[in-house]
Amino acid sequence: MTHMHVAGAIHADVASPAPVWLTRPDDVNELTTKLWSSNTKREEDGVISIAGVRVTDLAEQVGTPVYVLDEDDFRTRARTWREAFAGWTVYYASKAFISTVVARWLAEEGLSVDVASLGELTVALRGGVDPARIAHHGNNKSDAELRVSLTSGVGRIVVDSSDEITRLERLCAELGVTAKVMVRVTTGVEAHTHEYIATAHEDQKFGFSIGGGQALVALFRCQNSPHLDLVGVHSHIGSQIFDTNGFEVAARRTLKLFAQFREATGQELPELDLGGGFGIAYTKEDTPSSAADLAAGLREIVRHECAGYGLNVPRLSIEPGRALIGPAGTALYRVGTVKPVELGSGFSRRYLSVDGGMSDNIRPALYAAEYSAALANRVSDAEPVISRVVGVHCEGGDILVRNEFLPGDTGVGDLLAVPASGAYSRAMASNYNHTPRPPVVAVNHGRITTILRRETLDDLLALDAGLEKSES
Ligand SMILES: Cc1ncc(COP(=O)(O)O)c(C=O)c1O
Ligand SMILES: N[C@@H](CCCC[NH3+])C(=O)O
């Protein structure tokens, strides 16, 4: 992830070890603008508010932990991306987070939606997304899933394997329909991100390899199928990427494939999807590109490559997930214990245990992802101290924020806010240790709306078949 290369390095000038990239803030109460949703600020009395809702009121009304979505921030970001990429189709990657309310916002803001499971597809449809504006992904889509996709009129099915093409042809024949398909290709790009979220190097499960020749074969096969309508190629190189070079190389390689396809068939492929993966700021160190800069860069590359091959510029699309919902979300936790841990050589680390953990945000444990945090219910004059925010689970790796300067008097009962938490946190949440998953609330103009309620122990016990039997 972003700072993995320096995670072990330490400052010697502070009482606790801090990674070299983490600088001591002049004002520990200040909210670094790029990290927080656009309607987040500190009120005069020091309490953080999001879209006019004070986090102290929020915690009182809905409890903690809670994920807070700044509706206006999300909608504005969705519009900004749609406008920056005018003329392209912008699919929101729903895996980052989806609920029927978010699906409705997307439909209202004129975005399309990418789904990667029957669950995401169902939520998008139930949320009112036009099926024609849905792209269906997955490296092992089931018959049941493809059937729903075909019968509901999903706009694009992105095929990922020969077995899937066979399955899809059989289902299309059975249902008497034709599927519009894109072929997911592997461009061989080594994206600069964590290994687990890079998806275009050769040794991973997604797509047909361009370098190995399988991509061209898959294109021919779809082109010649009476059941499939081949519309183009899909490339996705990975996630949380800052270095735009990877997108450029992917665009070059896919357009070379377009040229090869035309040479072999005399026909041009009409569409190219360049996927998602645009990085966001989780810490002050991160410097994401703006939608406008990304759009200008990608437009120019595509134009240049198409001109070089004498191709018409295809209809283009992208699939940002994190870049739209990540910065709009804030996680709110309450501190339950504070523990100074002696590390030897005069160092100590302050562990702040909060009421959530790896069950609501697995990203630090899974990708060594870095986050930031701020004391949210008040300001403090105390010296900033390097702190580690940890959860309630039975794992040493149950870390939410590995290193952050927080006021030295942060204590039991205080609220901590973790910005940039809208993507892949609640969406990847689990019930580890039989923990009910936190709610997601939308805030706007001082109003709180629950869009996903808090799970309860009763919800979890309702799944317990043994209990059902003994009580019936
Ligand atoms: C096919 C596809 N499209 C889009 C995305 C969205 O990625 P991100 O949220 O990084 O923009 C992903 C996830 O990495 C993906 O696998
Ligand atoms: N889940 C990943 C991103 C990969 C998404 C799907 N291709 C993350 O949390 O960063």
Automatic annotation (TrEMBL):
EC number annotated for this UniProt entry: 4.1.1.20
Residue intervals of the Orn/DAP/Arg decarboxylase 2 N-terminal domain: 72-325
Catalysis: reaction(s): meso-2,6-diaminopimelate + H(+) = L-lysine + CO2
Active site: C394
Cofactor needs: pyridoxal 5'-phosphate
Binding site for pyridoxal 5'-phosphate: G277, E319, P320, G321, R322, Y424
One Pfam family of this chain: Orn_Arg_deC_N
Highest taxon in the source lineage: Bacteria
MF terms (GO), sorted A to Z: diaminopimelate decarboxylase activity; pyridoxal phosphate binding
Keyword set, alphabetical order: Amino-acid biosynthesis, Decarboxylase, Lyase, Lysine biosynthesis, Pyridoxal phosphate
A single BP term in Gene Ontology: lysine biosynthetic process via diaminopimelate
Pathway(s) it belongs to: Amino-acid biosynthesis; L-lysine biosynthesis via DAP pathway; L-lysine from DL-2,6-diaminopimelate: step 1/1
Binding positions for substrate per the UniProt entry: R322, R363, Y367, E395, Y424
Enzyme class: lyase
Location of N6-(pyridoxal phosphate)lysine modifications: K95
HAMAP family, A to Z: LysA (MF_02120)
Described purpose of this protein according to its UniProt entry: Specifically catalyzes the decarboxylation of meso-diaminopimelate (meso-DAP) to L-lysine.
Self-association state and partner proteins as the record states: Homodimer.
UniProt cross-references to NCBIfam families, sorted A to Z: lysA (TIGR01048)
Record's protein name: Diaminopimelate decarboxylase
Species of origin: Propionicimonas paludicola
Originating gene: lysA
